[in-house]
Design brief:
Elements: H1 14-23, H2 29-46, H3 52-60, E1 64-65, E2 73-75, E3 80-82, E4 90-92, E5 95-96, E6 101-105, E7 111-112, H4 114-127, E8 131-134, E9 140-145, H5 150-158, E10 176-177, H6 192-202, E11 217-220, E12 235-244, E13 247-256, E14 268-275, H7 279-293, H8 304-311, H9 313-326, H10 332-335, H11 362-371, E15 372-374, E16 380-385, E17 391-393, H12 394-407, E18 412-414, E19 420-426, H13 430-439, E20 454-455, H14 469-481, H15 489-492, E21 496-499, E22 513-522, E23 525-534, H16 539-542, E24 547-553, H17 557-571, H18 578-585, H19 587-594, H20 636-656, H21 660-679, H22 690-702, H23 715-725, H24 733-760
Parallel strand pairs: 10-11, 11-12, 20-21, 21-22
Antiparallel strand pairs: 1-6, 2-3, 4-5, 6-9, 7-18, 8-9, 8-17, 12-13, 13-14, 15-16, 16-19, 18-19, 22-23, 23-24
Helix pairs in contact: 1-5, 2-3, 2-5, 4-12, 7-9, 8-9, 20-21, 20-24, 21-22, 21-24, 23-24
Length: 761
C-alpha cells in the first residue's frame, strides 16, 4: 500500500499535487527534501509558528524576493492608498502574504539548455506576467509571483537541473562567468567547469550559511576584457597558466573585496596564482574568515569589502592562509578535475561555406556588424541577441529554445549586459538563423552599442528604487535609435548603464555614462532626478569607477546624453577614450557645462518634469520600502531552532497518519537539531554526530544550568538524554506518543533558553 507523503496536506491546489507527482524522482534527493521542507515552512508560517524575520530570510534563500507595494500601500500621485489584499497574513516584516513577489532563478555562469529554457518560459507564463527578465548577474527573474506557487515552481525547475537555493539572502549568490569562455580568442582557458564545480561545492555548504550579507563570485577567462567583471565582485577569479616544474599549470589570479553599491571598492589581489587543485580549498578559507570576522550588525558595512579594507589586504591574506592550513582535506576540492573534459563543447553542425545570400540586405548586414563576432574556432560565430531592458517573452524563449536545438545543441549563455549569447553558429547558418530570429523580433542590431543600455528593475518592481531606471533606459534607447544611422563610431560603442538607486544593480559605476535614481524637492513637490556618473571603465573586468558629477532632472537626461556625446565628438583628441576625455575636462568644467540642464522649471511651466518616465502619476518617493537585498540578520541559532520546529511538526503529521515509529524517530531528530542549534551560537563547526552534540550540550548548557527551566529545572534536558538512550522500536504506542510530546516541549525549552541568553547579553 502506498504511503501518503506526510506533508501532502500542505499543498494549496490540485496542480501542486500533480507537479509534485510529475517531478518525483527527476531531481537530486537533497533538492527534493529541501523543497518539501520549504513547503512545510510555508504551512507553519500560515499557522503563525515562524516569526516574520526568520521566514523572510528563509524564503530569500530560496530566491523568493519582495516586490514594490508589498507593504499593502501605493501612492496614486496625490495620496497613499491601501491595496485590499485578501488577508492580514505576512511573509516578512511589513510584507503582505498575498502581495506579488519576485522569484530569482540562479543560472550558474549563465548556462541554459533548451529544456531549461522551455520550463522557464512556461513558469513565466503560468505564474508570472509572461516575461523572463535577464539580470546583470546572469540570473532570470520572474515578477508578480504568489509565494504559495513557489514550491511547484521549485520542483519544475529542479526536475531540469535548476535550483533557486541561495539566489537571494545572506549567502553565495549566483556564480557568474564570461559568457563566451570556451570560444573566446583572448582567454587562457575555459573557466566553465571551474565555475560549475564551485557552484556545486558551495551550494548549501555549512561554511556559507552565517554571512552578514550576500557574497558574489565571478570568473573571467582573461584579464583585459570586461566579460566577467571580476573587479567589482566579492571574489573574482581570472584564468591564467603558469609554468610549474617544467609543466604548464592552470590556475587563477585570485581577487577579494571588490564591490559596487553606495561605496564602491576595487578588488584586491589575494594571490597571483592559485592552482586549480587549490581553488576550492582557498575559497572555503575565504568564506570562513568572512563568516567569522565580517560585520553582522551594521548592514551597511557587512560586505567583505569593508573587512578587507579595514584589515588591509596583508592581514586578510594572512588570516585566510592560516585558516586554509587548518582545514581538513576534502575530496571534493579536486574530484571535479576528472570531469573537466565533459564541459568541452563541440559544434552541432558541420562547417559549411561562408554564405552568399543576404549580401544586399542592409538590415542583415547591420546585424552582422553589431551582433556577430568570430570564435577562436575558425568558421564559427558568437551571436548576441540584444534584449530590450533584459526582457524576453515566454513565446520568444520557447522559439529560441527550438532554434538552439537546431543550430547549437548545447545551450545559450545569459550575459551581464542582460542579453543572450548563442555560440557555435556555423558561418553558413548565419542568414537562416537571422531569418528565424527576425520572425520572433530578436534581431535588434544594437549589441555592444550605446543603445544596448543596461538597467535594473528600479521603481517598476524594486522596493528601493528612487526613480524609474527602466523608464529612462527605454526612453534613451528610443531617443538614440533615431540617430544610430548617422552616429559616429567614437560614440557608437560607449556604454550607458542605469540604476534606480545608489545600490548599483545596473552597474552605473563602470559605464562611460552612468545614472542612478535620486530626487530633489521643489516647493511642496518632488522631482525625479538621476545622479550623473561619468568616466567608468568597462574593460579590464570593470577596471575603474566613474565619478558623480551632479543631479540631472529625469526629463533632461536625454538632452544631457546628447550634450556629452557632442562635446566628446567635437573636443576629443585623436583616439582619446571617453574616460580620458572626461578626466581631462575635469569635474568643475563638466558641471559648468551641464548647469543649465540641472535647472528645474516651475511646475506651472513644465509639469512633465514632475512625472517620471513611463509613469502617469505625479512623482513621489512615498512608495520606497525596506529593501530585501541584504536579507534579514538571522543567526545560526535561529535557523537551527526553526529547523527543529519544522521537524517536530513533521513528526506530529506522521503520528496523525499512523506512522508512529517513523514519527518518534523524527521527534528525536528534532531534539538533536534544537540542541545543535544552540551550540552553533558559539561553535558553527559542531559535528552532526548525536554523541558529540550531547556531550557538548551537557557541558555547556546542563552543567552550567543555562538550559534549565526556572520552574522545571532539568526536566526538559532529561527528555533528550533519556530518548537518546532508549531503543525507540521497543516502545509501545502510548510511550511513542509521549516521546513526541516531549520533543515538542524540548524544542520550546530550547527557544526559551535562547531568549534568556539573548536578554542577558
Amino acid at each position: 500500500m502506498e504511503t501518503k507523503n506526510p506533508i501532502s496536506i500542505l499543498h494549496r491546489s490540485e496542480s501542486d499535487e500533480i507537479w509534485k507527482e510529475k517531478c518525483s524522482g527527476k531531481m537530486p534527493e537533497q533538492w527534493a527534501t529541501e523543497i518539501n521542507e520549504f513547503e512545510t515552512e510555508l504551512f507553519l508560517k500560515k499557522q503563525g509558528k515562524i516569526e516574520d524575520r526568520i521566514f523572510a530570510e528563509t524564503r530569500l534563500r530560496r530566491g523568493a524576493y519582495g516586490q514594490r507595494y508589498d507593504n499593502g500601500t501605493r501612492h496614486d500621485g496625490k495620496e497613499q492608498r491601501k491595496i485590499p489584499f485578501p488577508n492580514a497574513l505576512t511573509k516578512g516584516p511589513n510584507t503582505m502574504w498575498d502581495a506579488p513577489g519576485m522569484e530569482r532563478i540562479k543560472i550558474p555562469y549563465g548556462g541554459m539548455n533548451p529544456e531549461q529554457m522551455d520550463v522557464i518560459a512556461d513558469l513565466a507564463e503560468e505564474y508570472s506576467d509572461g516575461i523572463c527578465h535577464v539580470t546583470t548577474r546572469q540570473d532570470i527573474q520572474l515578477h508578480y509571483v504568489h509565494i504559495e506557487d513557489t514550491p511547484s515552481m521549485f520542483r519544475r525547475l529542479a526536475a531540469v537541473g535548476i535550483t533557486t537555493r541561495e539566489a537571494c539572502g545572506n549567502s553565495i549568490r549566483n556564480i557568474t562567468a564570461c559568457p563566451i569562455v570556451g570560444v573566446c580568442k583572448t582567454e587562457a582557458f575555459d573557466v566553465t567547469p571551474y565555475a560549475d564545480a564551485m557552484f556545486r561545492f558551495l551550494l548549501g555548504h555549512p561554511d556559507v550559511q552565517d554571512f552578514g550579507r550576500k557574497f558574489k563570485i565571478a570568473f573571467s577567462g582573461c584579464k583585459q576584457n570586461p566579460c566577467g567583471l571580476t573587479n567589482i565582485h566579492d571574489m573574482g577569479l581570472i584564468a591564467k597558466t603558469q609554468e610549474v616544474n617544467g609543466k604548464i599549470k592552470r590556475g587563477f589570479e585570485f581577487y577579494v573585496g571588490g564591490g559596487l553599491g553606495a561605496v564602491p571598492y576595487q578588488a584586491k589581489l589575494l594571490d597571483e596564482f592559485v592552482t586549480e587543485e587549490e581553488l576550492l580549498a582557498l575559497t572555503q578559507a575565504v568564506c570562513r574568515v568572512y563568516a567569522r570576522y565580517g560585520e553582522k550588525k551594521k548592514r551597511s558595512r557587512a560586505r567583505i569589502k569593508f573587512l578587507v579594507n579595514d584589515w588591509g589586504i596583508e592581514k586578510f591574506r594572512q588570516m585566510v592562509f592560516e585558516e586554509r592550513a587548518r582545514l581538513k582535506e576534502d575530496l571534493r576540492w579536486t574530484d571535479y578535475l576528472a570531469t573537466i573534459d565533459q564541459f568541452q563543447e563541440k559544434p552541432h553542425r558541420a562547417l559549411s561555406a561562408a554564405p552568399t545570400s543576404h549580401q544586399n540586405n542592409q538590415d542583415y548586414l547591420a546585424w552582422l556588424n553589431t551582433n556577430v563576432q568570430p570564435q577562436k574556432q575558425p568558421g564559427y560565430y558568437i551571436v548576441t541577441i540584444a534584449l530590450p531592458l533584459g526582457d524576453i517573452t515566454s513565446n520568444q524563449m520557447r522559439v529560441l529554445a527550438d532554434l538552439v536545438q537546431k543550430f547549437v545543441k548545447d545551450g545559450v549563455r545569459t550575459t551581464v549586459e542582460q542579453n543572450i549569447a548563442l555560440r557555435w553558429i556555423n558561418q553558413g547558418d548565419l542568414p537562416s538563423l537571422y531569418d528565424e530570429l527576425k520572425k520572433i523580433d530578436l534581431v535588434d542590431a544594437v549589441a555592444n552599442t550605446i543603445i544596448d543600455i543596461t538597467a535594473c528593475p528600479g521603481t517598476d518592481t524594486c522596493k528601493l528604487g528612487n526613480a524609474s531606471s527602466r523608464g529612462l533606459a527605454g526612453e534613451l534607447r528610443h531617443h538614440l535609435a533615431t540617430r544610430m544611422v548617422q552616429m559616429d563610431e567614437a560614440i557608437r560603442h560607449l556604454k550607458i548603464k542605469v540604476s534606480g538607486c545608489f545600490n548599483s544593480c545596473g552597474q552605473h559605476h563602470i559605464s562611460d555614462i552612468g545614472f542612478y535614481g535620486i530626487s530633489r524637492k521643489v516647493g511642496n513637490r518632488i522631482v525625479p532626478h538621476f545622479q550623473l556618473v561619468l568616466g567608468g571603465q568597462w574593460t579590464e573586468n570593470g577596471g575603474s569607477y566613474g565619478l558623480a558629477v551632479g543631479g540631472i532632472p529625469s526629463k533632461a537626461v536625454p538632452a544631457t546624453v546628447d550634450l556629452l556625446t557632442e562635446m566628446y565628438l567635437r573636443e576629443k583628441q585623436p583616439v582619446e577614450p571617453f574616460k580620458t576625455y572626461i578626466g581631462r575636462l575635469g569635474k568643475v568644467e563638466l558641471k559648468n557645462r551641464l548647469v543649465k540642464l540641472m535647472e528645474i522649471p516651475p511646475y506651472e511651466a513644465e509639469p512633465s518634469y514632475y512625472v517620471d518616465w513611463g509613469d502617469v502619476r505625479e512623482f513621489t518617493t512615498s512608495d520606497i520600502g525596506t529593501g530585501e537585498c541584504a536579507g534579514e540578520v538571522v543567526s545560526l541559532v535561529d535557523f537551527g531552532l526553526k529547523e527543529a520546529d519544522r521537524i517536530v511538526f513533521e513528526a506530529q503529521v506522521q503520528l496523525e497518519q499512523g506512522q508512529t515509529l517513523q514519527a518518534v524517530h523524527t521527534a528525536y531528530r528534532a531534539m538533536i537539531h534544537a540542541a545543535q542549534g544552540l551550540i552553533k551560537g558559539y561553535n558553527p563547526d559542531i559535528s552532526n554526530d548525536p554523541e558529540l552534540i550531547l556531550q557538548e550540550f551537557k557541558k555547556s548548557f546542563c552543567d552550567t544550568e543555562k538550559f534549565y527551566d526556572p520552574f522545571a529545572g532539568d526536566k526538559f534536558a532529561n527528555y533528550l538524554f533519556k530518548t537518546h538512550e532508549t531503543d525507540l522500536a521497543t516502545l509501545n504506542q502510548d510511550q511513542m506518543k509521549q516521546k513526541i510530546q516531549e520533543a515538542q516541549l524540548f524544542v520550546e525549552a530550547a527557544y526559551n533558553c535562547y531568549t534568556r541568553m539573548s536578554m542577558n547579553n
